[in-house]
Design brief:
Elements (H helix, E strand, L loop, with lengths): L2 E4 L2 E6 L4 E6 L2 E4 L2 E3 L10 E4 L3 E5 L1 E6 L15 H15 L2 H17 L2 E8 L4 H9 L2 E8 L9 H14 L4 E3 L2 E2 L7 H14 L3 E5 L3 H11 L3 H7 L7 E5 L7 H8 L2 E4 L1 H6 L7 H7 L3 E3 L12 H16 L7 H7 L2 H6 L17 E5 L11 H7 L6 E6 L2 E5 L2 E2 L4 H15 L1
Parallel strand pairs: 1-6, 2-7, 8-9, 9-10, 10-11, 10-12, 13-14, 14-15, 15-16
Antiparallel strand pairs: 1-4, 2-3, 4-5, 7-17, 17-18, 18-19, 19-20
Helix pairs in contact: 2-3, 2-15, 12-14
Amino acid sequence: MNYHISGGKLLVFQEKEQLFSIEESDLYIKDKRISFVPFDTAETYETVDAEGMLVMPGLVNMHTHAYMTIVRNYADDVPFGEWLFNRVMPVEDRLPVEAAYWANQLAFLEMIGTGTTSYVDMHMYRCQSAKAARDAGMRGFIGRGLVGEDLYQDGERRFREALDEKEEFACDTLQFLLSPHAIYSASPKLYQQVAEECRKRGMLKQTHLSESVTEVQNCLSQHGKTPVQLLYDCGFLDEGTILAHCVQMQGNDLELIKMSGAAVVTNPASNAKLGNGFAPVLQMHEKGIDLCIGTDGTSSNNTLNMFREMGLLSLLHKGICGDCTALPAQYVVKMATVNAAKALGREGELGVIREGALADLVFLDLHAPSLFPNNNIVSSLCYSANGSEVSSVMINGRFVMRKGEFLTIDQERVFHEVQKVAEKYL
């Protein structure tokens, strides 16, 4: 279906100024892409009245574990080691594979409902994330978590699952990454092997890095290097690498990340909740590192709401550095859209409203009490919006939510299935 979107205000990124502006213009969605050129009179289309709406690029959640909705609010207020090794991992081990499908669908209800159209996921249940994303119409960048000493020996099963998933589900809305879990679960050799496979296959890669003090201390004791230095020396860091967390930076870590071209995803709510601290985002920004935002999984956040994450990120760092001008709304919104697209190698296609960009769009009600009056719309996206203002969501030129109604997910069925799983396995 083609669409003519009329009467709305558009959030447009001005490349020269590196700022967002609010424009009043009609949009045309042709063959899943954005155009400002009116339809030919012979073309078939539907007119969408966007009066009173802000039409903005869909938000990109750059780091999450969508299947973790099943353990939302299950392992709170405990130390990081207790949370991960004694609470979360045992549940993951006993969950049946099929449960992950419904847990992912629940995640998509929350993400779509709060304006996220793309997400970067690390999962552990074969094909369930991809299947759920395909069925929901989400745009996913998905990676099976990889662990072990050698990618082709003890790590071979998971590696094969990652490639099989890519082979079966790759399409115009799903892209696949190789995803070694972390330096404490994957060896330097495995990281080096993954880097070589990614170069050979033209794939992106992601990992958790320097999330906690313990991780860094253990790495220094075992290897005599920080985690960043370790992966830099392995050849893992380059422009196709996405690094989640990067909280505990030491020495020349930031310089190595900058030189490599890797992108960093900060997860402020998760890092704060687990007591791991705050990534040095301002220093990263000064270095020119590509900075993005993620929620992490709902076991450590406990939401997938990118509006909440944007506001929290800006406020926390203003308070930490005692500077009310730090991380202004304009830059934070850019992190969640333009920067994310760059990190994913989709610059100009995602995170922007421009000619030829993919039609991943979010419609916000500008008369929602939380946004009214509309004194500064860009500012309101960071400091005022909470996600409830989202009325409709389009992904790849297709409405997946319209006027508050989910069109691709059976909400009641999802709740029913997730509740059954929670009662049996938690």
